[in-house]
Structures
1.
Amino acid sequence: KIFKTVIQDQEKSTADIPPGSHGFPVVGETLQFMLSVNSGKGFYEFVRRRRIRYGSCFRTSLFGETHVFLSTTESARAVLNNESGMFTKRYIKSIAALVGDRSLLCASQHHHKILRSRFINLFSKKSTALMVRHFDELVVDALSGWEHHGTVVLLTDLLQITFKAMCKMLISLENEEELGSLQRDVGFVCEAMLAFPLNLPWTRFHKGIMARGRVMEVLEKIIRERRNETNSHNNNYREDFRQQLLAVDSDGSASSSDHSTKLTDAEIKDNILTMIIAGQDTTASALTWMVKYLGENQKVLNILIEEQTQLAKQASHKPFLELDDLTEMTYASKMVKESLRMASVVPWFPRLVLQDCEMEGYKINKGWNINIDARSIHLDPNVYSEPHKFNPSRFDEEAKANSFLAFGMGGRTCLGLNMAKAMMVVFLHRFITTYRWEVVDGDPSIEKWTLFARLKSGYPIRVSRRL
Ligand code: HEM
């Protein structure tokens, strides 16, 4: 049995604790983790090496706390679906300080439930359809100049496109100058997420905290302005997330009198920042990996070109793609799924153990951190045949249960998954039907200090128009 509650069964576990090393006193293996973060192989290398040495369940000590890593589909189901209620989400301290303790990512279990029930409506089919339209416009605009650029650093441009998309969707911010400074600050916040949480003037963490302060000021101003507009009825009604959040909070509607669901400004601000981070970096990184895999797999590219040029002809009378157009892009959708499996941009999902239990035959103590190692599951030959082969057609059939974890699973599943998949298909369509490309620097090194796996080179390419 993969998972066993111990306290509930009124028995003491006689199982061993998971194999692994606690490293040095106090710091544990934090230094080795930091060396990995700082290496060209990325911080997942720390986990990969231990997975090979100890197997599918091992323990380590990071930032003064015990962490257990698990990499089977059964443990993913038990922990992420959390039917036992014995696990809650928890990020390392630096992340909570940077996104804010009212963020969906860091809120307590009870608080998270309230927040999620409020935010889930914002990710309706209507919002996704609106996003497809806006995102397509942004992509068409950005791509229109690429052939004059000489070299395009793909990741840099994609980060800009996805940042604009998030800001348009969340707060209707389109002013280039304001977007530029906000993007820089959000970048500092992201860079500080894996830093040691030491708030001294010269530290990376301090730089992130200062940037968070500036982002909060901008969001505060934006919320105030919108509230004034709404109160003076002088609003050209804009249907962004902020409007929907404020509408419930200030217009005296049903939920406004319900204090358990009313959002405070602090909750709105923390979660707008959270969604910018959750949506920008992940999507841009995933898109960059997708183009890399595509460039390395000519056969896949040929099938895709055939599908997409056909659809481009059908949609040529419309200026922009619509959500319905994407449903016909079946091979492109599998391509997106396969890219997400191979890239595993969010490599593992952290949870806190609330009660002693046994997992995979090992004793797990209350208070330990447990991490579901999605990347290892995605690359497990017992789960996916020939896992290192890029093969979108493997998704002709349904993946094995609990094996596709790119967006997580259970009560903390990615809220933006449909939007993210739609954005990836839209980009794929425009990119493939507009350009051929050659890679300028294929260095596979991973960027340091990033929370989501991304290529250090930014994947520079040179493009030419496909006639
Ligand atoms: C390719 C792009 C994306 C990937 C790979 C991705 C992946 C993930 C994963 C794995 C989680 C769950 C982590 C866990 O269980 O610990 C998550 C959560 C989340 N994602 Fe995404 N995401 C992407 C895009 C987006 C977008 C576009 C948005 C929306 C704007 C978004 C918003 C969120 C939010 C709000 C959460 C927290 C949900 C909660 O805790 O209840 N994500 N994402």
Note: Residues 198 and 205 are 6 Å apart (CA to CA).
2.
Amino acid sequence: MSFIQESSTEFDSARLTLVHPRDKEQQHPLKTEPLFNLPAMQQRLLQLLQTTLELPRVLELFFRELHGQMCVDGLEYRHESHKLNLALGVQKLHRCSYRMTHEGAYLGEVVFCRGKRFSERQLQILEALLGSLLFPLRNALLYRQAIAAALNDSLTCAGNRLALEQSLQREIQHSIRQRSDLSIIAIDLDHFKKINDSYGHAIGDEALKATVNCINDCLRAVDGVYRMGGEEFVAVLPNTAVEAALLVAERICRRIAGMQFAIDGQDIPLSASLGVATRRTDESAATMLERADQLMYQAKQNGRNCVVGESATH
Ligand SMILES: Nc1nc2c(ncn2[C@@H]2O[C@H](COP(=O)(O)OP(=O)(O)OP(=O)(O)O)[C@@H](O)[C@H]2O)c(=O)[nH]1
């Protein structure tokens, strides 16, 4: 019967050492093994890991070095609030995990695994090498945060206009290469000014957040939702022909109208008008957005709380 090694340790940068009972027995500095030059590997990692700010790449470089030198079979990295869950190499039974922290800030959990037990000596070396990962990891997380702030609407967490432009360009290129359909849906809340005027701006903000959640619930993981500004949103649906996009738009329309949005027990009615555009041959992102917008305004003219679409073959 194999014994599965599971250990969980706090790795805090303040001391660049361990908060683990085992440490109490290890008052002396790390000694290098005859065939393993720890300072040289730390130096190499230091140089290697500062070549990129992309978190998956940082972890890949770190793992590649460890895999070659330390017989580590797999590495996992998790950070819930960053929605990160990465796995490299092969996942095996014996695992040791480290909660990485720096000045009180949580930097995620690193898990090493291998088919054979980790010896005490190997754990010491791994822990020393984690010191080389700490600052590149922190920098990569800060970089992700900065990118996310530049591309996300801070109120609703939907993508912003810049993110929409980038995503739509990317999806247009993809649809040309794959000869696949691409649809977008312009979504605008009805009489939103009345909600702000009647219940206040803060409740209006809550309504916008609830709307984004509602739209997201109607979309696939590959689709995206973006806030154009005010109470107008755009959903991007790769690989989606006009008929399917109309069904999705109808679903969003019904869900927003049926949403139980209540403040202090009082129901606040919400509805939206939607325009669906499927990309025509050679159509640019700007023209597609303009067309979806015009169709959405047609829905407003048709009495609101409805969807207007147009065939891609017009
Ligand atoms: N609470 C809140 N309100 C916003 C935000 N951005 C824009 N608004 C408000 O959204 C309202 C949009 O009003 P209008 O453009 O007249 O549109 P509407 O009242 O939804 O009417 P129709 O679109 O014609 O159905 C304005 O009152 C804006 O002040 C925001 O971030 N938070």
Note: Helices lie at 38-49, 55-70, 120-151, 161-178, 192-199, 201-218, 242-258, 285-301.
